Amino acid sequence: MHGWLILDKPAGITSTQAGGVIKRIFGQKKIGHAGTLDPFASGILPLALGKATKTIPYLMNSSKTYNFTLSFGAQTTTDDTEGEVIATSAHRPSLKDIQSALNLFTGLIQQIPSIYSAIKIKGKPAYARARAGEEINMPSRQVKIYDLALEKYDGENATFSVTCGTGTYVRSLGRDLALHLESVGHLTMLQRTRVGQFSIDNAISLENIKKIGDTPLACFLLPIGSVLDDIPAVSVSFQKANKIQHGQAVEVSKNNCLNISAWCDDKLIALGHVQDNLFYPDRVFNI
Hints:
It is a single chain. The protein is of the alpha+beta class. It has 7 helices and 19 strands. The protein is 18% helix and 38% strand. The strands form 4 sheets. Strands 1, 2, 3, 4, 7, 10, 11, 12, 13 and 14 form a 10-stranded mixed β-sheet that branches.
């Protein structure tokens, strides 16, 4: 099978483990995922099956939306409930203080990812070095926050929604927000609700997938081209489609373009680029 399965991953398992369940249930050999979710986080996990894995790069750079709950009063080593407490504070910010701070954490901001992140340092994940007792100096990085909104606050726990660009660490965002408000905090909940055009409203839970029995996997798959809405497209004839699928360039009525998809009779043929009105295939779909 080839296409996208939009999974609602539960907390407690890794993205790889979730993909493994799908492999076993449906006998799939090739599965990839766009945007890893660690065991603490739940929510939308787009799984690319078969030749859809060729389109993963077109989703990886898409913006993402999360819901997260920040608990004030304790900072942990991992910035969530899985770490050890390293600092406490009796101060609790007011509702007005939180709302006033949101603009400072919107737009292009600098953040330092947790030393327990999966960022590789000299070829080894930071979390592996941290757990081995190594001293780590994580470099600051610039990330983009498109929108940050407070959903509710009870005086101890604040729930937010955030839409952000690739590379953003939501745990670090919560940690830095608490520190700015002259307190400390850690995340008690993290749920991804959107990746690119895929939404949690259209996702299927792992529990429901396990219950579907003999229902064909195709009933739950979205087309391979579902992730290509943001790039230009060109339509070609059957004759040109045949040449493209053999790796040949064909003439098209399109200006120079670095990323473009080629379609024939509503079927995705290839991804490639256009130069001097010639379409050159970079990834071909012989389906």
